[in-house]
Amino acid sequence: MALAFLTRNVSNIITNPFSALGSVRTATKRAGGTVHNHGGSPGKRLGVKKFSGCYYQYVIPGNIIVRQRGTVFHPGPHVKMGRDHTIYAVTPGFVRFYKEKWMRGQRSFVGLVLDRGEVLPRDEAARGRSRYCGLVNLKAHVPPQESINSA
After folding, report:
1. SS3 call for 26
2. What CATH number does residue 79 fall under?
3. Domain presence at residue 142
4. Over the stretch 38-88, which tens digit does the pLDDT of each residue have?
5. Contacting residues for 121 by C-beta, under 8 A, at least 6 apart
6. Domain region containing 92
7. Which helix H or strand E contains 57, and what residues bound it?
């Protein structure tokens, strides 16, 4: 009897090894491992920290003006760039953003002006150099001022 069972099902066992064991469930979903938008790292808080515009933000030495990856903005007058491309103030003043022609395109610059109404880029031929700490050109001709007590 057992021999009859085997002879009847030998061809079935050879073609399908799971038929003697019963039904085997196959996966209907993919294996785990691909998860989109999962984990990640916190934001680095990049961007412009001090703005120029209608209300002219005032900065003091050491204030961070722009945090950036790479040189989106380049340093102008009275600012410097840190090793992680952070632009910071080296003198007190008002923030100004401006663009200049550079090679075939334009570059964005960040600078400081010492007076509220000034604009960048500065016309040094007409206005002279922008200096800090009240330095003056001693070789420039200064007309003599009339004294108040001369009358």
Report:
1. coil
2. 2.40.50.100
3. no
4. 778 889 999 999 998 777 799 999 999 999 999 999 999 999 999 999 999
5. 76, 98, 100, 109
6. 47-127
7. none
